[in-house]
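Entry for iron/sulfur cluster complex. Fields follow.
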Amino acid sequence: MSQAPATATVPERLRLATAALAGCSGCHMALLDLHLELLELAAHTELVASAMLCDTKHYPDKVDLCLVEGAVASEEHRLFAKRIRQCTARVVALGDCAIHTNITGLRHRCPSDLAPRLVLSEAPAGSDPPLPQLLEVVLPLEAVIAVDAYLPGCPPRAGAIASLLRRWWQQQPLIDAEVRPQRFG
Ligand code: SF4
């Protein structure tokens, strides 16, 4: 009697997401700077959500790791950060804006009502979607949700991102979570 052919075990790819809060997209550009290492990334992960790299409208459940760029500057960002935390095993603050607000935090150097006035003066009447509801204070990601690792830099070096991702799929500690850069801006 012939035996049924053994089915090859396909290793399950880890579910990776990236998210953008208030930043300049430079941290995502640094991720793209991985160049050929993106192929290695693709072999180990499935990109399930990304503001800039795939056309997903909603942040999914059961994400294994999310790289979060940008500070928390609006109520929308705050709710999005909560959703990310709820659905993600490990959250990485990617870049100095996420870690300590950086450029985004320069808003605090303006007179308190100047930034909203600058936005509103550019907005068409009755804009749709409505203007973001800015928070009084721009917050680092860790002020809103627990963060598992920090990857400093403006933007972080592509090599540092590659190293973190490799450590992740090799099930090593992501990076030294105690490393905190000095405040800038
Ligand atoms: Fe842009 Fe720098 Fe902020 Fe990244 S850390 S979003 S590169 S300003």
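NOTE: The two ends are 74 Å apart (CA to CA).
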